[in-house]
Amino acid sequence: MSGLRPSGYNLFTMKVADLGEFGVIERLTDLIRLRRGQGIDAFDYKLLIGAGDDAAAWRGSDVTELVTTDTMVEGVHFTRATTPWRDLGWKVMAANVSDIAAMGGLPLYALVTLGLPPDFDVDDVDKLYAGMLDMTEEYRFSVVGGDMVRSPVVFITIGLTGATDGVLMRRSDAEAGDQVAVTGYLGSSAGGLKIILGELEAERKAVESLGEAHRRPRPDLHQGRILATEGVKAAIDVSDGLVDDLSKLCRASRVSARIQAHQVPVDPTLRRTFPQCYQDLALTGGEDYALIFTAPQETMKRVLPQLPTPATVVGDILDGEPGEVSTVDATGKDVTPAIGGWDHYR
C-alpha cells in the first residue's frame, strides 16, 4: 500500500555527521555503560575506568593496568605529500603514549594493525616501522605483535597497554575552584601543518621547529608521572585542541571552565610566524600532545616547580554548564573561538 509506512518509521534518519564525532562517542559510551553491568573481575582484575576517558584502566594485584588505541587513516589524518612514513610511524605511537601520560602511567606493550594496498612499497613499510621503533626506544616500551589487512588506503591502528602504581588522573575528577594548567607550548603543531601545506612562506627556523612539532610531537610522559604522584586528579591530553579537549574534561566532571587567552603558552616562533592568528592556533589547534590538568591552587604551587619543562596556569574550573568553556582576553572581553578543535565529521 503506497503512502503507508511501518509503525515507528522515522521520517528523519539521523546520520553520523548530525551528531559529530564526539556526539557519537558519547552515545556509544552510554550504550557500553548500560550493558557493562558490574564488569569482568576474572583473575581478581577489577575494571576501574571503561569507555569515556583517555584510556581504560583495571586493577591487578600490584598495579593499575591501562589500555588505549588510536588510528590514523590516509586522506583523513595524513597524506603522503605532507607526512614522511617514518614521521607517521612516530606520530601514531605518540598519540597513544600521550593517552597513557594523561592517566599518569607508563607505556608497556603495543600491537600494530596495518591496512595496506597491494601495491604499497615494502621499503615504505620499513620506514613506517622504523618511526614506530624510534618512539618505542626513546619512551622505553615494546611492539609485541599485530595484524595486517588489505585496504584501499593506508591505515595504522595502535593498541597500547600501560600501567601505573599511583593514583589515576581522570577526566571526571575536576572540581569547581580548581585551576587549569597546560604543559609546554600550544598551537605549534597546527602552525607546522599550515607551513607544510604551503599556506605560508616562513623562515627556515620556523619551517624546521614548527614542522618538527607537527611531524614528531613529544608526549609529556614524565610530566604526567609527576602530576599523578603529586596529587593532581584530573587531566587530559591535547589531541584535538585546548578548548575542545578541556570541554571534554569539563563535561565528564560536570563543570565548566574559563580560559585566559593571553596566558596560554605559545612558542615565540609561532607568535612571530603567525602574528594574526597564533592565539586561535593555540586555542583550537590539535596534535600538540601536551597535558591539560586541573588542581587546587595549593597543589599547583607545589607541582609546577617540579616539572622538567614549564607548565602554565591558563584558567579556572567553574560551577557552570557542564562542558562549557569560555575564553577571555586580558581586558575580560570574550574571545571564545567560533569553531572548536578537530572533529572527524564536522
Tally of helical runs? 10
Q: How many beta strands in the DSSP annotation?
A: 12
As a percent range, the share of strand residues is 15-25%
Percentage of helical residues?
Answer: 25-40%
| Radius of gyration of CA atoms, rounded to a whole number | 21 Å
CATH class of the largest domain: Alpha Beta
Q: Taking all residues together, what is the mean pLDDT?
A: 87
Give the structural class.
Answer: alpha+beta
Low-pLDDT stretches are 1-9
Q: Order of strands across the widest beta sheet?
A: 1-2-3-6-4-5
- CATH-derived topology of the largest domain: Phosphoribosyl-aminoimidazole Synthetase, Chain A, domain 2
Q: Identify the CATH homologous superfamily of the largest domain.
A: PurM-like C-terminal domain
Would you mind describing this structure in some detail?
With 346 residues, the chain is of the alpha+beta class. It folds into 2 domains: 149 residues, 60s Ribosomal Protein L30, Chain: A, CATH 3.30.1330.10; 158 residues, Phosphoribosyl-aminoimidazole Synthetase, Chain A, domain 2, CATH 3.90.650.10. The chain contains 10 helices and 12 strands. The strands form 2 sheets. It has a 6-stranded mixed beta sheet with strand order 1-2-3-6-4-5, covered by helices on one side. Strand 2 and strand 3 form a beta hairpin. The longest helix is centred in the first third of the chain and has 21 residues. 42% of the residues are buried.
